[in-house]
Write a structure and sequence with these properties.
Layout (H helix, E strand, L loop, with lengths): L2 E6 L11 H4 L4 H15 L2 E6 L3 H13 L4 E5 L8 H10 L3 E5 L21 E4 L4 H14 L1
Parallel strand pairs: 1-2, 1-3, 3-4, 4-5
The protein binds 1,3,4-trihydroxy-5-OXO-cyclohexanecarboxylic acid.
1,3,4-trihydroxy-5-OXO-cyclohexanecarboxylic acid binds next to loops.
Length: 145
């Protein structure tokens, strides 16, 4: 059974409260329920992690190497646009990774167009809302099979 780690960065725990016009009214727990149901249907194991701290995200990515995680879906949120440490951690693990953004980062401020992890990721899924995470799982399963 494939083991997939779903990592979310800062403020993703505030879904349903933060900027609803951009991220929608559904909560972080709604997102976890959606992904859990999908994983059950696909017969895969998912683990969730959310942190507002860059170092904690790096620690979790490193841990994924030692736990032999098969694939990572990551929304580093604001750290997408700033964090070389997250890019380096992903490179260290060599675990296939798909980047997800709920909003369409390309149509927003200039600084959101930069993604440090994009060069490493097998795919970047942007602007598909919560369904982007399901799409990301499908992309990983294509590679893992
Ligand atoms: C985000 C987009 C980022 O620019 C922003 O900082 C986020 C969420 C998204 O999912 O659309 O926090 O990654």
């Amino acid at each position: 059974m494939a083991k997939i780690l779903i990592i979310n960065g800062p403020n993703i725990n505030m879904l349903g409260i933060r900027e609803k016009e951009i991220y929608g009214a559904n909560t972080y727990q709604d997102l976890l329920n959606l992904i859990s149901d999908y994983a059950k249907n696909k017969n895969i194991e998912v683990e969730f992690f959310q942190s507002n701290h860059e170092g904690a995200l790096v620690d979790k990515i490193q841990e994924a190497y030692f736990k032999k995680i098969d694939g990572i879906v990551i929304n580093p949120a604001a750290y997408t646009h700033t964090s070389i440490a997250i890019l380096d951690a992903l490179k260290a693990t060599k675990i296939p990774t798909v980047e997800v953004h709920i909003s369409n980062v390309i149509d927003r401020e200039e600084f959101r167009k930069i993604s440090y992890i994009r060069t490493y990721c097998v795919k970047s899924i942007i602007g598909e809302g919560f369904n982007g995470y399901l799409h990301a799982i499908d992309e990983l399963l294509k590679i893992l099979k």
